[in-house]
């Protein structure tokens, strides 16, 4: 009985290894909308068999004097490798103004350059 229980635990652990989080940085997007406060980004990714969530990561690098560079990356997060071939078209939105203010607080940064993902236009 004890060996059957141990085998069950080992099998559960091996199945959970297949459900590891997969993070894909999106290098090409199809849509960027910025209204001076909110940033919305749309992209395309293959999949359809796993749940996908979108995350916008915002990072600050201080450069000369009182300026900085803010880098915006879109990350698609799924709960495992998604081998399905459907095209998904998610969008993700963030209050970029509030996020930048949060990042530069107490940094003595008064000017920032924002670097967004590359927009790709495909003409068929």
Can you walk me through this structure?
The chain has helices at 2-18, 96-104; strands spanning 22-26, 28-29, 31-34, 38-42, 45-47, 52-62, 67-78, 86-88, 91-95, 111-115, 118-119. 21% of the residues lie in helices and 46% in strands. The chain has two helices and eleven strands. It starts with a helix and ends in a 5-residue tail after the last strand. It has 124 residues and is an alpha+beta fold. Mean pLDDT is 85; it is low at 5-17.
Q: In DSSP terms, counting alpha (H) and pi (I) runs of 4 or more, how many helices?
A: 2
Ends distance: 62 Å
Structural class: alpha+beta
Q: What's the total count of β strands? A: 11
Radius of gyration: 20 Å
Largest sheet: 4 strands, mixed
| Mean pLDDT, all residues | 85
Shape: elongated
Q: DSSP strand (E) fraction?
A: over 45%
Helix/strand order, N-terminal first: HEEEEEEEEEHEE
In helices, the fraction of residues equals 10-25%
Regions with little confidence, pLDDT below 50 for 5+ residues: 5-17
């Amino acid at each position: 009985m004890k060996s059957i229980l141990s085998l069950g635990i080992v099998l559960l652990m091996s199945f959970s290894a297949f459900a590891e989080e997969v993070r894909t940085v999106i290098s090409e997007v199809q849509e960027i909308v910025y209204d001076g406060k909110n940033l919305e980004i749309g992209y395309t990714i293959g999949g359809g068999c796993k749940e996908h969530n979108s995350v916008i990561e915002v990072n600050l690098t201080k450069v000369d004097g009182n300026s900085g560079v803010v880098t915006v990356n879109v990350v698609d997060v799924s709960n495992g490798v998604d081998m399905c071939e459907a095209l998904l078209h998610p969008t993700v939105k963030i209050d970029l103004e509030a996020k930048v203010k949060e990042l530069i607080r107490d940094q003595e940064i008064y000017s920032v350059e924002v670097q967004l993902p590359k927009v790709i236009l495909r003409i068929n």
